[in-house]
Amino acid sequence: MPKRFSPDEYAAGVLSGNRVLLSRAITLMESTLPSDQTLAHEVMEKMLPHAGKSVRVGITGVPGVGKSTFIEAFGNYLLEEHGKNLAVLAIDPTSQRTGGSILGDKTRMETLSANPKAYIRPSPAGKTLGGVARSTRESILLCEAAGFDVIFVETVGVGQSETAVHEMVDFFLLLMLAGAGDELQGIKKGIMEMADAIAITKADGPNLPAATSAQAEYKGALHLFPLGASKWSPRVTVCSAFEKSGLAPIWDSVMEYVQLTQGNGYFQQRRQEQNLHWLRHSIRQQLEERFYQHPAVKAQWEDVSGQVTQGQKSPFAAAAELFRLLP
Amino acid sequence: MPKRFSPDEYAAGVLSGNRVLLSRAITLMESTLPSDQTLAHEVMEKMLPHAGKSVRVGITGVPGVGKSTFIEAFGNYLLEEHGKNLAVLAIDPTSQRTGGSILGDKTRMETLSANPKAYIRPSPAGKTLGGVARSTRESILLCEAAGFDVIFVETVGVGQSETAVHEMVDFFLLLMLAGAGDELQGIKKGIMEMADAIAITKADGPNLPAATSAQAEYKGALHLFPLGASKWSPRVTVCSAFEKSGLAPIWDSVMEYVQLTQGNGYFQQRRQEQNLHWLRHSIRQQLEERFYQHPAVKAQWEDVSGQVTQGQKSPFAAAAELFRLLP
């Protein structure tokens, strides 16, 4: 059992910006021990009044798009040019099928991780998406309480985690490579429609013409989508982490988005909806865990679900049958 | 209490293609009376071995796109040129915000509803999406058992029902209007990415150039999306229900899709996944209904969810608090 502090010790440490306490508090949020969860809730209640004052940006893209190089360049730009305090929360994919490890990437964000105004925290590969979602969401709030005014939440754009991240950030940035074709195959359907901005990376040297032409194509494509409730038209830009070019327009987009949506009320409304979303999500998750872990259900599941899959039993009749097994 | 038959009477009637018994069986599936649900499950178990042998096509588009006119023209084309037996299941939107009523539209499909090889069934506005989904899905199976080899499931492309319909059909057809702009605003984000084909309607007379140019735009846009697991590239065509033109290419797309996906195994695999999806969906729905209808939860819900929405309580702590209210 790792060392634990009192709720007041965690709270005081986080609020004073103490990195060690912040990291310990995040570790506490990630814990699945029942005793830790009670403590985590107590710490969180103390933090909530101090949270909420950041811009939360989700950043995603397939491996190979240059995500950590981009985050390092973009992060340094925000620290140097805008005087921001930046926290980067990286969700490690639970599946290993993509290869690239975010924990490995961390060491590549060398200048950023050495900067005292930046804080980089990889989430360990969680066993459940729900667990990752919960601890990441609470980590955002802790970082806000610790004084960070920009939060990046980074994912690999191939799994389910993007939808979860989309539900916890204000702005969703999708990194894409020019040259389309095979690289695109890795992006999950539906992710492009969540994007508030698309940035074509590696737009430098001989890649520049392809990047500019991809930019025009994506602009045309996004133009066909209807505006969402935010009334924001997604932007498409090109950038180069290597040349440190094209970073200002991306941050300008974020700021314009915030101004627009704070003006029309969407910003606050969406955060409130996100709060409610996570309440319902958490309830659903616990309900399903209780159901599928029930011994009577576990004993019958393989048999019943097999019959349903094969079309021998109606899903609705099968569900009713399983519910009859419960007290 | 409406007249009920025995499971064997329903089964024999449906299998012989008796329209009256088919309609009564669908009404039984739509019933929420507990006694009816037991009977419905028994009927369904008898029907399952006879179901599954149709092509299931979801058709959606915003009001004004000419959905019923299209379905009438396309349906008549299938009956006359391909000798098909067609069932049209129309999901009436639960919300009234779009105006147009599908029940009203039904009377507009005059020639189709007069044809003995076609069967048109509007689903009444359901109280829950889950209820609509259950009865529509069971209705598909009943129509298959009654010998219909093409099933259309029609929705208005503005609500949640499209995702549900997408999970019960083989092929998803999106109807769009040329002229983009405001008409597009009605289409919900994410629907375009579900489409296996987009048909630009009203491509006749002075509208033809705009329709052809919209076709090129959508082709370009869809090209940017990655192929899904089906390996199918979505098609974009133009058509006119008025001139009865452009209908053959749409049906060709459906047939090519079926051939491709039956060949690569995706067709059967997807139907099996859909079966499992509805089992899990049905379980989830019943779990949530039990939870949110529990008197202790109902008594606290407004208070707790309000605190969560306002950011005064963490969603995860609030969920835990609500669970402590339950036995």
Automatic annotation (TrEMBL), chains A, B:
<keyword id="KW-0378">Hydrolase</keyword>
<dbReference type="GO" id="GO:0005525">
    <property type="term" value="F:GTP binding"/>
</dbReference>
<dbReference type="GO" id="GO:0005737">
    <property type="term" value="C:cytoplasm"/>
</dbReference>
<dbReference type="InterPro" id="IPR027417">
    <property type="entry name" value="P-loop_NTPase"/>
</dbReference>
<dbReference type="GO" id="GO:0003924">
    <property type="term" value="F:GTPase activity"/>
</dbReference>
<protein>
    <submittedName>
        <fullName>Methylmalonyl Co-A mutase-associated GTPase MeaB</fullName>
        <ecNumber>3.6.5.-</ecNumber>
    </submittedName>
</protein>
<dbReference type="Pfam" id="PF03308">
    <property type="entry name" value="MeaB"/>
</dbReference>
<comment type="similarity">
    <text>Belongs to the SIMIBI class G3E GTPase family. ArgK/MeaB subfamily.</text>
</comment>
<dbReference type="InterPro" id="IPR005129">
    <property type="entry name" value="GTPase_ArgK"/>
</dbReference>
